[in-house]
Amino acid sequence: MIIKTIISVIAYLILAPLAGGLLAGLDRKLSARMQRRVGPPILQPFYDVLKLFEKEKQTVTKVQDYYVMLFVIFVMASGAIFFAGGDLLLVIFTLTIASAFLIIAAFSSNSPYAQVGAERELLQMMAYEPMVLMTAIGFYMYCGSFTVSDIIGGTSMPFLPLIGIFAGFVFILTIKFRKSPFDLSMSHHAHQELVRGLTTEFSGRTLGWIEISHWYENIFLLGFVFLFFANGTVWGTIIGVVVAIVAYFFEVLIDNSFARMKWQFAFKAAWIVALVCGVINIFVLYLIV
């Protein structure tokens, strides 16, 4: 059991950035095709990160690099705990701490653009955290455990009993993946009026690590989608992986179909979805389980 856990953690730490980078490349390619452009090569995200690592190191304040590295470590730790079959609540709290360190790093730069981006990131956290917590509660109520390994090893697929929570989680993934209409604090596209939002003052190796961290985070979040279909069988695993990939490219479609909304709309929409999809689903589970 311990050996299997160690292998899972090592596999995540090695393979997650590779898979995340490929997804980012496919994202760019598909987005370009939707806009009738050729688009960059699929491996372009890797070329961009390598180029960032080759640039001269320049920082506004030395402390921001310290906070960014803590962000990187906690993102990797949250994914490692998840893929090691650990506790969902610990995973969520670790990821929240990681986001807090990135926000502090942006505030420490004293840049007005970065600070506004950091403030928007805080608002986004307040918007999506209730739905993330309800997702963990839903799994606990249905599977009887917060432990990922217990959920995966279950005999029944949680999707149908948790279909409302699944819909709510997919909704807040748009915020977590930083896709339009909710790319408020930081955008990968040129339309962001804040230049690069909370990463405006980051460059070189520091920005490269942030990009890699997002690849780790994206794979880990898709792991949550996979959990809804895990039932201890090969078919459950295949369905879970396929749905996770489809969910990611569904977010790409939304990203290219909607203009960016105001933060007030993002906040209200996320809380309404959490109340309607999450609370009602949890109430129904309470009645039938």
Automatic annotation (TrEMBL):
Q: Which residues form a coiled coil?
A: none
Q: How does it sit in the membrane?
A: Multi-pass membrane protein
Q: Which domain of life is it from?
A: Bacteria
Species whose genome carries this gene: Lentihominibacter hominis
Record lineage: Bacteria, Bacillati, Bacillota, Clostridia, Peptostreptococcales
The protein depicted here goes by the name NADH-quinone oxidoreductase subunit H
Q: Where are the transmembrane segments?
A: 6-26, 66-84, 90-110, 159-177, 219-249, 269-288
> Is Acyltransferase among the key words of this record?
no
GO cellular component term, pick one:
plasma membrane
